[in-house]
Amino acid sequence: MVSVLHLLPVVYALTVYSMLCHLSSVVCCMLYAICDMGMILEWNELKRTVESEQAAGKKVVFTNGCFDLIHIGHVRYLEEAKALGDILVVALNTDRSLAGLKSGRPIVPEAQRAEVVAHLDMVDYVTLFEEDTPYELIRLLRPDVLVKGGDWKKEEIVGSDIVADTRSLPYREGVSTTKIVERIRKLGI
C-alpha cells in the first residue's frame, strides 16, 4: 500500500504544473488579444493610432457601452456603426464604472468583455474607461463620427458637443442584456 507521504511530491508537481499552465494560458490570451484581433489599447496609444488613421484619410467612428452579454442587438448595432466609416473604436465601461450605472452588473468581467468585443470582425480598436461617461476620451480622440443606440436622443449623446457628426442608430426593441438576464432568472438557470 502506498503511503500518502509518497504521493505528496506528485500532488505538489501537479499543482505547480496546473498553475504554470493557467499562467501560460493567461499570457497567451493577452498576446492573442493584442495580435490576432481588433486591438485593445490604452488611451494614449489609441490617440496616436486614431490620429494616424485620420492622417491616412480614414474616417474614425466611436461608440461606447457596457457590452456585458453580447447579443444580436449589439452585433447589428456595431455593424451599422462600422458602416459609417472606416475604423470602429469601441470604448467599454470598466467593471467599476458599470457597477455604478447598473445594479448587479457586470456579469462578465471587463477583460473578457474587451476580448469578446475585440474579436468581432467590425471592431478595429477597443479601450476601457473608468468614468461614468466617455466624455474625456471622446475629447482626447476627436473621432469623425460618434454613435449611440436609438434609446439615446442625438442631443443627449455624451460628446455630441465635440463631434459634429453624431448619430443615434435604431434601437432593437425586445433585445437587451437586461431582458436576457430576466429570462434566465425566470427559467431558474
Task: Please give the count of helices.
Answer: 7
Outline, from the CA principal axes?
globular
Largest sheet: 6 strands, parallel
Number of strands: 6
Tell me the Rg in angstroms: 21 Å
Number of domains: 2
CATH architecture of the largest domain: 3-Layer(aba) Sandwich
What would you say this structure looks like, in words?
The chain folds into two domains: 1-36; 39-187, HUPs (Rossmann fold). The protein has seven helices and six strands, in the order αβαβαβααβαββα. The chain has helices spanning 4-35, 43-55, 72-82, 95-101, 110-119, 135-141, 177-187; strands at residues 39-40, 60-65, 87-93, 125-129, 145-149, 165-169. Strands 1-4-3-2-5-6 form a six-stranded parallel β-sheet.
Topology:
Blueprint: H1 4-35, E1 39-40, H2 43-55, E2 60-65, H3 72-82, E3 87-93, H4 95-101, H5 110-119, E4 125-129, H6 135-141, E5 145-149, E6 165-169, H7 177-187
Quick recap:
The protein is built from seven helices and six strands, in the order H-E-H-E-H-E-H-H-E-H-E-E-H. The chain has 189 residues and is an alpha/beta fold.
Keywords summarizing the entry:
single chain, 189 residues, alpha/beta, Rossmann fold, six-stranded parallel β-sheet, 7 helices
